[in-house]
Amino acid sequence: MADTKAGFIALIGEPNAGKSTLLNRMVGAKVSIVTHKVQTTRARIRGVAMEGQSQLVFVDTPGLFRPRRRLDRAMVAAAWGGAADAEIVVLLVEAHRGLTEGVEAIIEALEERISPNQKVALALNKIDRVKSEVLLGLTEKLNARYPFVETFMISAEKGHGVDTLRGWLAENLPDGPWLYPEDQIADLPMRMIAAEMTREKLTLRLHQELPYQLTVETTNWEERKDGSARIDQLIYVIRDGHKGIVLGNKGETIKGVSQSARQELEEFLGRRVHLFLQVKVRPNWLEESERYSEMGLDFKDGNS
Protein backbone atom coordinates (compact mmCIF):
# COMPACT_ATOMS: atom_id res chain seq x y z
CA MET A 1 0.00 0.00 0.00
CA ALA A 2 2.70 2.42 -1.05
CA ASP A 3 0.18 5.10 -2.08
CA THR A 4 -1.35 5.48 1.38
CA LYS A 5 -1.12 8.64 3.47
CA ALA A 6 -1.45 9.13 7.23
CA GLY A 7 -0.82 11.79 9.81
CA PHE A 8 -1.98 13.73 12.84
CA ILE A 9 -4.22 16.78 12.57
CA ALA A 10 -4.63 19.07 15.57
CA LEU A 11 -7.82 21.08 15.95
CA ILE A 12 -7.12 24.15 18.08
CA GLY A 13 -9.08 27.22 19.07
CA GLU A 14 -10.82 28.99 21.90
CA PRO A 15 -13.19 27.07 24.19
CA ASN A 16 -16.51 26.38 22.46
CA ALA A 17 -15.14 27.13 18.97
CA GLY A 18 -16.65 23.86 17.72
CA LYS A 19 -13.60 21.57 17.75
CA SER A 20 -15.40 18.58 19.29
CA THR A 21 -18.36 18.99 16.94
CA LEU A 22 -16.01 19.10 13.95
CA LEU A 23 -14.10 16.03 15.17
CA ASN A 24 -17.31 14.05 15.57
CA ARG A 25 -18.52 15.19 12.13
CA MET A 26 -15.21 14.21 10.50
CA VAL A 27 -15.07 10.79 12.15
CA GLY A 28 -18.77 10.09 11.69
CA ALA A 29 -19.19 8.93 15.28
CA LYS A 30 -19.31 10.51 18.68
CA VAL A 31 -15.84 10.28 20.19
CA SER A 32 -15.62 13.66 21.88
CA ILE A 33 -17.75 15.36 24.50
CA VAL A 34 -19.97 18.09 23.04
CA THR A 35 -21.86 20.46 25.33
CA HIS A 36 -22.95 24.07 25.41
CA LYS A 37 -20.44 24.69 28.20
CA VAL A 38 -16.87 25.74 27.46
CA GLN A 39 -13.66 23.89 28.37
CA THR A 40 -15.29 20.44 28.41
CA THR A 41 -12.66 18.54 26.41
CA ARG A 42 -9.95 17.59 28.88
CA ALA A 43 -7.88 14.97 27.14
CA ARG A 44 -6.39 14.96 23.66
CA ILE A 45 -8.96 12.69 22.09
CA ARG A 46 -7.84 11.08 18.87
CA GLY A 47 -10.52 10.33 16.33
CA VAL A 48 -9.62 8.41 13.17
CA ALA A 49 -11.26 9.12 9.79
CA MET A 50 -10.66 7.51 6.41
CA GLU A 51 -10.73 9.56 3.21
CA GLY A 52 -9.77 7.55 0.12
CA GLN A 53 -6.31 6.12 0.79
CA SER A 54 -5.61 8.66 3.53
CA GLN A 55 -5.99 8.06 7.26
CA LEU A 56 -6.72 11.26 9.17
CA VAL A 57 -5.91 11.07 12.88
CA PHE A 58 -7.53 14.00 14.67
CA VAL A 59 -6.23 15.36 17.95
CA ASP A 60 -9.12 17.22 19.57
CA THR A 61 -7.41 19.51 22.04
CA PRO A 62 -8.86 21.32 25.05
CA GLY A 63 -9.80 24.91 24.27
CA LEU A 64 -6.98 27.41 24.63
CA PHE A 65 -7.67 29.96 27.35
CA ARG A 66 -5.93 31.75 30.22
CA PRO A 67 -5.34 29.06 32.85
CA ARG A 68 -6.16 29.72 36.51
CA ARG A 69 -5.96 26.34 38.25
CA ARG A 70 -3.73 23.27 38.01
CA LEU A 71 -6.33 21.47 35.85
CA ASP A 72 -6.53 24.50 33.52
CA ARG A 73 -2.75 24.60 33.10
CA ALA A 74 -2.59 20.86 32.36
CA MET A 75 -5.36 21.24 29.76
CA VAL A 76 -3.61 24.12 27.98
CA ALA A 77 -0.30 22.21 28.01
CA ALA A 78 -2.12 19.22 26.46
CA ALA A 79 -3.56 21.45 23.74
CA TRP A 80 -0.18 22.84 22.71
CA GLY A 81 1.37 19.37 23.00
CA GLY A 82 -1.24 18.09 20.55
CA ALA A 83 -0.48 20.92 18.12
CA ALA A 84 3.28 20.37 18.33
CA ASP A 85 2.90 16.66 17.48
CA ALA A 86 0.69 17.21 14.43
CA GLU A 87 1.56 17.39 10.73
CA ILE A 88 -1.32 19.82 10.13
CA VAL A 89 -2.87 22.31 12.54
CA VAL A 90 -6.38 23.68 11.96
CA LEU A 91 -7.29 26.86 13.85
CA LEU A 92 -11.04 27.11 14.37
CA VAL A 93 -12.43 30.63 14.76
CA GLU A 94 -16.09 31.39 15.44
CA ALA A 95 -17.18 33.55 12.51
CA HIS A 96 -19.65 35.62 14.54
CA ARG A 97 -17.04 36.42 17.23
CA GLY A 98 -14.17 37.16 14.85
CA LEU A 99 -10.66 38.16 15.90
CA THR A 100 -11.10 38.15 19.68
CA GLU A 101 -8.36 38.69 22.26
CA GLY A 102 -8.28 34.93 22.73
CA VAL A 103 -7.76 34.26 19.00
CA GLU A 104 -5.07 36.95 18.92
CA ALA A 105 -3.27 35.22 21.82
CA ILE A 106 -3.46 31.85 20.03
CA ILE A 107 -2.02 33.35 16.83
CA GLU A 108 0.86 34.88 18.81
CA ALA A 109 1.54 31.48 20.38
CA LEU A 110 1.38 29.79 16.94
CA GLU A 111 4.20 32.05 15.77
CA GLU A 112 6.35 30.83 18.67
CA ARG A 113 5.33 27.17 19.00
CA ILE A 114 4.66 25.85 15.49
CA SER A 115 7.60 24.70 13.38
CA PRO A 116 8.01 25.97 9.79
CA ASN A 117 7.36 22.50 8.29
CA GLN A 118 3.90 22.27 9.88
CA LYS A 119 0.94 23.41 7.79
CA VAL A 120 -1.55 25.67 9.56
CA ALA A 121 -5.02 26.10 8.03
CA LEU A 122 -7.81 28.42 9.12
CA ALA A 123 -11.41 27.23 9.47
CA LEU A 124 -14.07 29.87 10.05
CA ASN A 125 -16.82 27.99 11.86
CA LYS A 126 -20.52 28.78 12.40
CA ILE A 127 -20.63 30.68 9.09
CA ASP A 128 -24.43 30.46 9.05
CA ARG A 129 -24.47 33.13 11.77
CA VAL A 130 -22.92 35.94 9.71
CA LYS A 131 -23.30 37.61 6.31
CA SER A 132 -20.91 36.86 3.45
CA GLU A 133 -19.34 40.33 3.42
CA VAL A 134 -18.46 39.96 7.12
CA LEU A 135 -16.85 36.58 6.36
CA LEU A 136 -14.73 38.05 3.59
CA GLY A 137 -13.55 40.91 5.80
CA LEU A 138 -12.69 38.52 8.63
CA THR A 139 -10.82 36.21 6.23
CA GLU A 140 -8.67 39.11 5.01
CA LYS A 141 -7.99 40.32 8.55
CA LEU A 142 -6.94 36.88 9.85
CA ASN A 143 -4.78 36.06 6.82
CA ALA A 144 -3.03 39.39 7.17
CA ARG A 145 -2.32 38.46 10.78
CA TYR A 146 -0.92 34.94 10.06
CA PRO A 147 0.21 33.12 6.86
CA PHE A 148 -2.43 30.35 6.83
CA VAL A 149 -1.84 27.90 3.97
CA GLU A 150 -5.58 27.65 3.30
CA THR A 151 -8.87 29.10 4.59
CA PHE A 152 -12.13 27.16 4.89
CA MET A 153 -15.68 28.33 5.59
CA ILE A 154 -17.55 25.68 7.53
CA SER A 155 -20.45 24.89 9.80
CA ALA A 156 -19.32 21.90 11.88
CA GLU A 157 -22.80 21.51 13.32
CA LYS A 158 -24.63 21.45 9.97
CA GLY A 159 -21.82 19.90 7.92
CA HIS A 160 -21.36 22.77 5.44
CA GLY A 161 -17.84 22.82 3.99
CA VAL A 162 -16.66 19.89 6.11
CA ASP A 163 -16.18 17.52 3.13
CA THR A 164 -14.02 20.11 1.37
CA LEU A 165 -11.87 20.54 4.47
CA ARG A 166 -11.54 16.77 4.95
CA GLY A 167 -10.55 16.31 1.28
CA TRP A 168 -7.84 18.97 1.57
CA LEU A 169 -6.50 17.44 4.77
CA ALA A 170 -6.37 13.99 3.14
CA GLU A 171 -4.38 15.37 0.19
CA ASN A 172 -1.88 17.19 2.39
CA LEU A 173 -0.90 14.42 4.77
CA PRO A 174 2.50 12.78 4.27
CA ASP A 175 2.88 9.50 2.39
CA GLY A 176 3.12 6.53 4.69
CA PRO A 177 1.38 3.48 6.17
CA TRP A 178 -1.82 3.86 8.18
CA LEU A 179 -1.29 4.33 11.90
CA TYR A 180 -4.41 2.50 13.10
CA PRO A 181 -6.58 -0.41 11.94
CA GLU A 182 -9.07 0.78 9.31
CA ASP A 183 -12.11 0.14 11.51
CA GLN A 184 -10.79 1.91 14.62
CA ILE A 185 -12.33 5.32 15.30
CA ALA A 186 -10.58 6.37 18.50
CA ASP A 187 -7.47 5.43 20.42
CA LEU A 188 -8.87 6.26 23.83
CA PRO A 189 -9.47 3.23 26.04
CA MET A 190 -13.17 2.36 26.19
CA ARG A 191 -13.13 3.01 29.95
CA MET A 192 -12.23 6.65 29.29
CA ILE A 193 -14.78 7.07 26.50
CA ALA A 194 -17.46 5.70 28.85
CA ALA A 195 -16.39 8.12 31.60
CA GLU A 196 -16.49 11.03 29.14
CA MET A 197 -20.02 10.11 28.08
CA THR A 198 -21.24 10.16 31.69
CA ARG A 199 -19.40 13.43 32.35
CA GLU A 200 -21.10 14.98 29.33
CA LYS A 201 -24.52 14.07 30.74
CA LEU A 202 -23.57 15.59 34.10
CA THR A 203 -22.34 18.75 32.39
CA LEU A 204 -25.63 19.10 30.54
CA ARG A 205 -27.71 18.60 33.70
CA LEU A 206 -25.72 20.76 36.12
CA HIS A 207 -25.03 24.48 36.08
CA GLN A 208 -22.39 27.10 36.85
CA GLU A 209 -18.97 25.98 38.12
CA LEU A 210 -19.87 22.51 39.38
CA PRO A 211 -19.17 20.60 36.12
CA TYR A 212 -15.54 21.78 36.25
CA GLN A 213 -15.19 20.58 39.85
CA LEU A 214 -16.18 17.00 39.22
CA THR A 215 -14.68 14.12 37.31
CA VAL A 216 -15.82 10.63 36.36
CA GLU A 217 -13.72 7.47 36.56
CA THR A 218 -14.64 4.03 35.24
CA THR A 219 -13.62 1.73 38.09
CA ASN A 220 -14.86 -1.61 36.75
CA TRP A 221 -15.74 -3.07 33.34
CA GLU A 222 -17.12 -6.58 33.36
CA GLU A 223 -17.97 -8.52 30.19
CA ARG A 224 -20.97 -10.78 30.83
CA LYS A 225 -21.75 -14.15 29.25
CA ASP A 226 -24.92 -12.81 27.58
CA GLY A 227 -22.82 -10.27 25.62
CA SER A 228 -23.75 -7.29 27.81
CA ALA A 229 -21.31 -5.24 29.90
CA ARG A 230 -21.48 -4.09 33.49
CA ILE A 231 -19.80 -0.71 33.95
CA ASP A 232 -19.16 0.84 37.38
CA GLN A 233 -18.22 4.50 37.61
CA LEU A 234 -17.28 6.89 40.41
CA ILE A 235 -18.18 10.57 40.22
CA TYR A 236 -15.75 12.62 42.32
CA VAL A 237 -16.90 15.97 43.73
CA ILE A 238 -15.04 18.30 46.07
CA ARG A 239 -17.80 19.14 48.60
CA ASP A 240 -20.69 17.44 50.42
CA GLY A 241 -23.03 20.08 49.00
CA HIS A 242 -21.98 19.12 45.48
CA LYS A 243 -22.81 15.48 46.19
CA GLY A 244 -26.38 16.50 47.02
CA ILE A 245 -26.64 18.48 43.76
CA VAL A 246 -25.37 15.55 41.68
CA LEU A 247 -27.75 13.13 43.39
CA GLY A 248 -30.72 15.52 43.13
CA ASN A 249 -34.07 15.38 44.92
CA LYS A 250 -34.77 11.71 45.78
CA GLY A 251 -31.89 10.74 43.47
CA GLU A 252 -33.64 12.07 40.36
CA THR A 253 -30.60 13.82 38.86
CA ILE A 254 -28.22 10.88 39.12
CA LYS A 255 -30.97 8.56 37.87
CA GLY A 256 -31.54 10.75 34.77
CA VAL A 257 -27.79 11.01 34.13
CA SER A 258 -27.37 7.25 34.46
CA GLN A 259 -30.24 6.54 32.09
CA SER A 260 -29.08 8.91 29.33
CA ALA A 261 -25.41 7.83 29.67
CA ARG A 262 -26.43 4.16 29.53
CA GLN A 263 -28.52 4.71 26.38
CA GLU A 264 -25.65 6.46 24.63
CA LEU A 265 -23.18 3.76 25.67
CA GLU A 266 -25.50 1.04 24.35
CA GLU A 267 -25.79 2.88 21.04
CA PHE A 268 -22.01 3.35 20.85
CA LEU A 269 -21.15 -0.26 21.78
CA GLY A 270 -24.08 -1.86 19.96
CA ARG A 271 -25.05 -4.01 22.95
CA ARG A 272 -26.72 -3.95 26.34
CA VAL A 273 -25.04 -2.03 29.17
CA HIS A 274 -25.65 -2.12 32.92
CA LEU A 275 -24.32 1.19 34.30
CA PHE A 276 -23.84 1.79 38.03
CA LEU A 277 -22.90 5.28 39.27
CA GLN A 278 -21.68 6.30 42.72
CA VAL A 279 -20.87 9.80 43.97
CA LYS A 280 -17.86 10.27 46.24
CA VAL A 281 -16.68 13.42 48.01
CA ARG A 282 -12.96 13.86 47.44
CA PRO A 283 -11.96 17.43 48.41
CA ASN A 284 -8.50 17.30 46.80
CA TRP A 285 -9.13 15.38 43.57
CA LEU A 286 -7.92 18.39 41.57
CA GLU A 287 -4.49 17.88 43.19
CA GLU A 288 -4.27 14.09 42.71
CA SER A 289 -2.03 12.85 39.92
CA GLU A 290 -4.12 9.66 39.40
CA ARG A 291 -7.16 11.71 38.37
CA TYR A 292 -5.08 13.50 35.72
CA SER A 293 -3.80 10.19 34.35
CA GLU A 294 -7.41 9.00 34.05
CA MET A 295 -8.16 12.09 31.92
CA GLY A 296 -5.10 11.60 29.72
CA LEU A 297 -3.42 14.71 31.13
CA ASP A 298 0.04 15.16 32.65
CA PHE A 299 -0.13 16.16 36.33
CA LYS A 300 3.26 17.90 36.06
CA ASP A 301 1.89 20.18 33.33
CA GLY A 302 -0.36 21.73 35.97
CA ASN A 303 2.60 23.27 37.80
CA SER A 304 2.66 27.03 37.52
TrEMBL record:
Main location per the UniProt record: cytoplasm
Aminoacyl-tRNA synthetase recorded as keyword: no
This protein's GO CC annotations: cytosol; plasma membrane
Cited InterPro entries: G_ERA_dom, GTP-bd, GTPase_Era-like, KH_dom-like_a/b, KH_dom_type_2, KH_sf_prok-type, P-loop_NTPase, Small_GTP-bd
Pfam families according to UniProt: KH_2, MMR_HSR1
UniProt GO molecular function: GTP binding; GTPase activity; ribosomal small subunit binding; small ribosomal subunit rRNA binding
Region of interest (G4), residue spans: 125-128
Chain positions recorded as GTP binding sites: 13-20, 60-64, 125-128
Region (G2): 39-43
GO terms (BP aspect): ribosomal small subunit assembly
Keywords of the record: Cell membrane, Cytoplasm, GTP-binding, Membrane, Nucleotide-binding, Ribosome biogenesis, RNA-binding, rRNA-binding
Region annotation G1: where it falls in the sequence: 13-20
Location within or outside the cell: Cytoplasm; Cell membrane
Residue stretches making up the KH type-2 domain: 206-283
Oligomer status and interactors: Monomer.
Function: An essential GTPase that binds both GDP and GTP, with rapid nucleotide exchange. Plays a role in 16S rRNA processing and 30S ribosomal subunit biogenesis and possibly also in cell cycle regulation and energy metabolism.
Stated name of the protein: GTPase Era
